[in-house]
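Worked example

This section walks through a single chain of length 142. The input is the sequence exactly as stored; nothing has been trimmed or padded.
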Amino acid sequence: MISNTAIDRTSHIPYYIQVIGRPDEFAVMNTPESYPGFSSIVPKGSTWQNQCPARAALTMSIYRPIAFASKIACPALIMLAEDDSLVDSDVVSKMADKIPAGELVRYPIGHFDIYTGKQFEEAVKKQTSFLMTHLDVAEETP
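Given that input, the structure is written out below as C-alpha cells.
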C-alpha cells in the first residue's frame, strides 16, 4: 500500500476518484444500488464529498477478511445482505463459517438497506440482543 506519508513527502497531490457512481460511471462503488443506497445514508446538509484518494482502491483490492476469520477469538455477529450487489454473499457465508464463535444472520435485502427503515430497526434489535448475551448484561425492564 502506498502510505499517505510517502505521498506527502513527494509533494504529490492525490488523484481522487468517486466513492459512489451509477453503473456507467467509474467509482469505487458503481452497482445499481450504490448511488441511491449510499446517498440515502448521507445526512442532509452534510459536507461529505463524493471522493476518495485513488490509492485507497489499492487497499480495497487486497482486502480479504476471510483470510483472518479463523483467528477471531471473540463472538462475532455477521449480518449478511443476501441481495448485496457489492459483496458476494457466498464469500460472507464461508467467512462466517470460519469464525469459531460466529453467528450469521441473513437478511433478504441489498447492501445499504440495513441502514434505514424497518431493516435498520430489526438489525439494531439483533445487535442489541447479541451484545446483551455476549456481554452478560441483564436486561432491565421499566
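What to look for: The chain has two domains: 1-63, 64-137.
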